[in-house]
Amino acid sequence: TTYSDTLYMECRMPAGERVVIPRDSAELAAYVVSGAVSIGGEPYPAGVMVVAAQGQALAIDANEASRVMIVGGASLGERHVWWNFVSSSRERIEQAKNDWRDGRFEPVPGDDEFIPLPDR
């Protein structure tokens, strides 16, 4: 199930190739799978994700043969964080707190330690 418009694209780039990804979505990033690229003049090796600045396109230059995954899409909205819980809904965080406190989460395989819910 997809809850918003998404972008997921593979770029296989020979050395010297340039790809410009226009900013057609609220969020846009490039993950360097292999090789080495420059984005905005800054070099990035494999294993790095570069998040585009708000409103900016991604101009990717392959410094060597590279494979880059482009990800992006509409924003899912504000996220709320409390302890180990992240949600777009404060109500879901409250429910998760209750579920954790009452032992309704599945245990982590191989980990017998239980960490109680913090007081704050």
Task: Write a structural description.
The protein is mostly beta strands and 120 residues long. The protein folds into two domains: 6-73, Jelly Rolls (Sandwich); 77-105. The protein is 10% helix and 42% strand. The chain is built from one helix and ten strands; from the N terminus they run E-E-E-E-E-E-E-E-E-E-H. Strand 9 and strand 10 (85-87) form a beta hairpin. It is elongated and about 55 Å long. The model has no long low-confidence stretch (mean pLDDT 93).
Topology:
Blueprint lengths: L5 E8 L4 E4 L5 E8 L1 E4 L2 E4 L3 E3 L6 E5 L3 E8 L6 E3 L2 E3 L2 H12 L19
Antiparallel strand pairs: 1-8, 2-7, 3-6, 3-8, 4-5, 4-7, 9-10
List keywords for this structure.
120 residues; Jelly Rolls; four-stranded antiparallel β-sheet; 10 strands; elongated
How many domains make up the coordinates? 2
Strand order of the largest sheet: 1-8-3-6
Radius of gyration: 20 Å
Strand composition percent: 35-45%
User: At the first level of CATH, what is the class of the largest domain?
Assistant: Mainly Beta
Quick overview:
With 120 residues, this protein is mainly beta. 10% of the residues lie in helices and 42% in strands. It has one helix spanning 90-101; strands at residues 6-13, 18-21, 27-34, 36-39, 42-45, 49-51, 58-62, 66-73, 80-82, 85-87.
